[in-house]
TrEMBL record:
It is an enzyme of class 2 (transferase). This is 2-amino-4-hydroxy-6-hydroxymethyldihydropteridine diphosphokinase. Its EC number is 2.7.6.3. It catalyses: 6-hydroxymethyl-7,8-dihydropterin + ATP = (7,8-dihydropterin-6-yl)methyl diphosphate + AMP + H(+). It comes from Chrysosporum bergii ANA360D.
């Protein structure tokens, strides 16, 4: 493995004080050895996907990582749990949702981890914040840059959060 690779993480929350939770989650991840924050997007208010529930706050962050993807996923799951994430129903409300979107140009498909994230190319709430901080990152399956992928999704439900 290379000494340092880039990983794109999507963050979301629609329970409790989402802004504080998301900011604290980034700080928590950045304190883990082998994970260094490189960039974070603005926060966006988005309509929830799935059962009726409150709107989400969503954003993305880029980290330089010195740990393999599986260990990064474990760190994300531990961080979700630390912030009260309980998995009850698919696409249900959550205190914190962390998704590993991209890990350099790696393509991985295992029962527990798929990179790139299998639904990222169709989700405006992922692509809009990601294009803000990594517009030229090439999504390795489509071989297209994030900017182009974002231009092809309906962004009407994604609104920049101007102030907290």
């Amino acid at each position: 493995m290379k000494p340092s690779q880039s990983a794109a993480i999507a963050l979301g929350s629609n329970m409790g004080d989402s802004y504080k939770t998301l900011e604290a989650a980034i700080d928590t991840l950045a304190k883990i050895p082998g994970i260094i924050l490189q960039a974070k997007s603005s926060w966006y208010r988005t309509k929830a996907v799935g059962p009726p529930q409150p709107d989400y706050l969503n954003g993305c962050a880029i980290f330089q990582v010195e740990i393999p993807p599986v260990l990064l996923l474990e760190a994300l799951l531990r961080t979700e749990k630390k912030f009260g994430r309980v998995r009850r129903e698919q696409w249900g409300p959550r205190s914190l949702d962390l998704d590993l979107l991209l890990y350099d140009d790696i393509i991985m498909d295992t029962p527990h981890l798929q990179i790139p994230h299998p639904r990222m190319r169709s989700r405006a709430f992922v692509l809009i914040p990601l294009v803000e901080i990594a517009p030229d990152w090439v999504e390795p399956i489509s071989q297209r840059v994030i900017r182009d992928l974002a231009s092809e999704v309906d962004c009407s439900g994604v609104h920049l959060l101007n102030s907290i």
